[in-house]
Amino acid sequence: MVISIRFFDRTLEQIFEKIKTGTRLDFEDGMKLFQSRDLAGVGSLGHFVRENLHGKTAYFSNYLNLNPTNICVNRCSFCCFFRTPEASDAYVLSRDEIRERVRNAVEERGVREVHIVGGLNDAVSSGYYFDVISWVKEAAPSVFVKAYTAVEIDYFTKKTGMDTEEVLRELKTRGLDAIPGGGAEIFAEDVRRKICPRKASAARWLEVHKIAHQLGIASNATMLYGHIERVEDRVDHLLRLRVLQDETSGFNAFIPLPYRSGKGAAEDFLGDSCPDGITDMKVCSVARLLLDNIPHIRVHWPAVGLRFAQVALSFGADDFGGTAVHEKVLRRPRSGRSDPVSCEEMVRLIRESGFNPLEVTSAYVPFCSA
After folding, report:
1. Which CA distances in Å does 238 have to 169, 225, 243, 259, 268?
2. What is the DSSP letter of 274?
3. Domain for residue 11, yes or no?
4. Bridge partner residues of 104 (DSSP)
5. Rounded CA gap, 226 and 202, in Å?
6. 139 lies in some domain
7. Which residues of 40-56 are buried (b: 16+ CB within 10 A; e: fewer)?
8. Closest residue by Cα to residue 274 from 262, 290, 256
9. What is the mean pLDDT of each run of 10 residues along the chain (370 residues)?
10. How distant, in Å, are the alpha carbons of 186, 244, 336 from that of 239?
11. Would you list the DSSP string of 309-360?
């Protein structure tokens, strides 16, 4: 069958030929894709690869967000979630509170996963973060647990004196199934020093994920874009993920995250607006094209909006995200709503976009065809 895409930007024709012949795209190709003004052409390339991988299937998950504490020593400039210990709304969830939240989510909303991320809190015991997973499993033994970013795991090694492998093994023993991709932000160290100077380095983030993969713990990866990073930094970030995936095959999905303003001093150097829609679409498509070894591109609708998530399914994304029960990390969701989306609504939105919904875990194990 002859496959044809009409391009306004003729440089995209060369990239399309490489894709059709199975030739891996390189750094220069990534730069050309981001710099191209042919958004429809870039999107068509992303959709071409997406359909070759997943056909008309669009995945989603039903999960609870659990944030054990919002007190954090890192205090990243762009973060709206963290609190100082003295803040009136600072908190640490107890065993009973965690068990109750999980039980209620399972019984009332039928959640099948619990996603755990939170602050780096010096005031809690070294075993608290391990206990959190045990408490979740006590409340719902069958739920899939995706917990703790590489930044948090790096912090646990310092707090406990254990090495990374020991920490991950202990978490796995308690019931950990996978780790999320947060904390990657952007790998360019000069940018990282400005936006999150206390956070684990890019090399350390990659190292933690590599060790997790070697232990059979799959993970996701993210990229925070639309602040002070350069186009070169985005391409570099994606290609570094691709290099690690070549070695470990441990990443299940890549999740692009747009920078969102609203953290006061951060706006002095990060800007006071979100990335535009063209950038959002390009990041989704270019990620699908460069990350030829990561199976899934996932959109996080609280960050990008439900309408964007629908369109993204035709720009390279195959995972519509999840119900996002109790999403609190994003203070002002770009979707315009802070309440979770029901499974029924997820199914409707996916079908309206022209795709076939399939509920899965973060390991992409299906539950049923919706």
Report:
1. 28, 12, 9, 17, 27
2. P
3. no
4. none
5. 18
6. yes
7. ebbbbbbbbbbeeebee
8. 262
9. 78 96 97 97 97 97 91 64 70 91 94 89 83 97 96 93 97 97 95 89 97 98 95 98 98 94 50 76 98 97 91 98 74 55 94 97 80
10. 12, 9, 33
11. HHHHTTTT--EEEE--BT--S-SS-TTS--SPPPHHHHHHHHHHTT-EEEEE
Tell me the two tokens of residue 31: 């730069």
Of the candidates 212, 53, 99, the one whose C-alpha atom is nearest the C-alpha of residue 146 is 212
What's the one-letter identity of residue 124? V
> Looking at the domain assignment, is residue 12 inside a domain?
no
Which residue's entry shows tokens 């406990």?
160
pTM for this model (two decimals): 0.92
CATH number at residue 312: 3.20.20.70
**Which residues lie across from 369 on neighbouring strands?**
358
- For residues 122 and 102, is the Cβ–Cβ distance under 8 A? no
Strands (E), 67-217: 113-116, 144-147, 178-179
Q: Which amino acid is at 199?
A: K
- Domain range for 253 is 23-363
Q: Which residues of 2-13 are buried (b: 16+ CB within 10 A; e: fewer)?
A: eeeeebebeebe
Number of H helices, E strands in the chain: 15, 11
Residue 316 carries which side chain, given as an amino acid letter?
A: G
**341 part of a folded domain:** yes
The residue ranges of DSSP E strands in the chain, in sequence order, are: 57-61, 63-66, 113-116, 144-147, 178-179, 218-225, 251-258, 296-297, 319-322, 356-360, 366-369
Question: Domain total for the chain?
Answer: 1
Q: What is the DSSP letter of 298?
A: B
In whole angstroms, give the CA distance from residue 71 to residue 81. Answer: 9
| Structure token pair of residue 315 | 């720009």
